[in-house]
Amino acid sequence: xxxxxxxxxxxxxxxxxxxxxxxxxxxxxxxxxxxxxxxxxxxxxxxxxxxxxxxxxxxxxxxxxxxxxxxxxxxxxxxxxxxxxxxxxxxxxxxxxxxxxxxxxxxxxxxxxxxxxxxxxxxxxxxxxxxxxxxxxxxxxxxxxxxxxxxxxxxxxxxxxxxxxxxxxxxxxxxxxxxxxxxxxxxxxxxxxxxxxxxxxxxxxxxxxxxxxxxxxxxxxxxxxxxxxxxxxxxxxxxxxxxxxxxxxxxxxxxxxxxxxxxxxxxxxxxxxxxxxxxxxxxxx
Length: 285
Prior knowledge:
- The protein has 285 residues and is α/β, with parallel strands linked by helices.
- Helices cover 38% and strands 20% of the residues.
- Strands 6-13-11-9-7-8 form a six-stranded mixed sheet.
- Helix 1 links the parallel strand 1 and strand 2 (31-36).
- Helix 3 (90-103) runs antiparallel to helix 4, helix 7 packs parallel to helix 9 (234-242) and helix 9 (234-242) packs parallel to helix 10.
- It is globular.
- The two termini are 38 Å apart.
- The mean pLDDT is 89.
């Protein structure tokens, strides 16, 4: 469950910030939305808040304080910027050297640095999954389709590969088909990775007539789950289907679901499994 007091929502792109704001509204919890320029969905403008550039940290902190926020959450996708093109305010300019230094060590170090800025100002950091009431992938099959042993083996290898890539701060997803790693997610994101898989030769992947392989999404072992837990929505299922995959999955309790009913509907309609693995990836290697 979400914490007390007004929430400051630092909103990037995608559906997750919309779900967080809607949950606050439904529960009667006041929310103040910081819409990151170039990323946040225009729909979020219906909530009290401001629009701010990524380096306008002073503007953001001042607005959160004036709004009386007690906690902040970070939700949505944000691409790593070209730091040379940022236009920081005074506070941002004082923090930017440390942020750039952290970014050179990887995304996880960058996130920890940004979190520390808000924690040092006295804000509690809440995870989007807590605000959404723990809407994460449960263990086992979600929906009508059960994976075969071969498909489950592919999923577990995909999770293992994703976890190993995460140790190097690369990405959160991988696709495996018949034991062969077809793709590993990096900065392009899950949708672009699945599009790459769909463009591979037909003999390497499944098809709508003969579905094979699986997408696995796993959190980076080094990351702070309050900020960067993997996310899956119905679009993920649809793109996996377009790539000929048999199913998708993640580590139970560590994959945020955006509209679980829509995910189940898409999976059942397209004939894909959705699986929550209780043990994470295959560590037999």
